[in-house]
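Case study 2.
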Amino acid sequence: MQLKRITLILLVFSHLLYVHVEAQTWQDTVTLIEKAFSRYTSNIPGCQLAISRNGNLLFSKAWGMADMEHNISLTKESVTEAGSVSKQFTAACILLLEQEGKLSLDDDVRKYVPEVPDYGKTITLRHMMQHTSGLKDWGSVAGIAGWPRSTKTYNNDDAVYIISKQKTLNHPPGEEYIYSNSNYNLFAVIVERVSGKSLAEYSKRKIFEPAGMTHTEWRNDFRKIVPGRALAYAKERNVYETDMPNEYVYGNGGLLTTVEDLVKWNDYYLNGKLGDPSLLARQLTTNPLSDGSKGYYGAGLRIDSVRGWKSIAHTGATASYRASLAYYPDASLTIAWLSNSSEFDGQADVVGAVRNIFLSDKTKSAEKLTAAVYAVSEKDLQKYAGWYRNPKTGTGVKLQVNDGKLTDGNGSSLQPIAENQFNFRGGKVIMIPGNPRKINLIGNGETIVFEEVAASSNDPEILQEYIGVFYSDETESRFTVFVKDGRLILHRDPKYDQILTASYKDAFFFPGSVIVFMRDKKGKVDRLQVNVGRARNVVFEKIK
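Prediction:
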């Protein structure tokens, strides 16, 4: 009996000791988290963070201000916008409708939205869900016209209208992955046309209520009063300004929620509770591109790996709201983050800092490249110099020799490793002889092809050839191009005159865009094409 008592006491003591050690370790972890978020002081816009493991909430906290005008602090209950993290909820609604037998992912989008032009190739709902449809991003097209999102109160009907005006796709369906909000705005329209309920109504009944997401709704009416909503702020010239998404478009974004509700959502669908039977496998399914290369995008979720850990994640940004929701299956770890500030864009990644506290780096250290792995004379390097163009995107790169090294236009060196082969920015460049000569840029599981093109000319007479007025049916806007002080200028509106920087022949750069002047059979400039990241080959015809 005495022995049993001693044994019991020892067990209790060892348990208490274990709890103490764990508590101490957890306190260290909390200290590291607080350090990572120390930039969010009490008097600036802030963020929420929630961390769960195995369905248990480990950490939840808010920092900073929700409303600077009224001196209201951000709390764990403050409603914040999730940007493109919202897409997984829109995709889930489409999958639920498929399970109900009301549509199929293999259906042509024009079955439900006949306003989408017939491009001669079927665009399926699956293409749209995985961003391989080729549909141009309507917001990018609007931006070319001078009216980017947040400058007008766009709604989903406006998105459909802009999509309906596009004469070409970015690429044939299934051939490439190009992220486009158009896909998910169309999904919101499809949910309403198929179910008879708005996306907001359908998802509330089918997802938010069953998952216990009591602080979640859609921003389908930006004028609606949302109790506890955190306002979004940008910092310009060292002064904070409100920067809210004053638009009705949603489905691509627009989810109003909290980090604890996002954790509930992850626990809900990852435990197989979405759909009957569970739709989890459908949510996580990816498909290869038409050339066989791997696809990473499922149902509004990017399926990838980080630091050697499998990840199911998405980020978001709308106006100055920022968001991230990530799950690491091998660690049963969820990290949800929402912020009402864009102030720290481009600085250290606080979400990554938190992830790194919990997940060690399982990847092997990359081998360091040694200098002069393969000797190439400066004379031989000169044969690679010149302009090269990506025929898909219109972007160009200039290779030149500086101080015995082959460099790109930004001064980054290409390090020779073999005949016609170079290491470059973590990838590989292979020079392919021919006419035209080509470059294969290999990295991140894909190959990007550039073709050699003629260089631009500074001849004033050549610049005169580009002068004119150009109109686009796709954007319903016009450009006026003229020469001033020996520079080519693009005029769009009274407040917008942009210097065009010469690239390769007939091509010019300006921030975020590439303009290529096109010529008719007689060599006369008769149109131009604008290329931006999510909208390629937007045509402006010369009208005078």
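The first strand starts at residue 47 and ends at 53.
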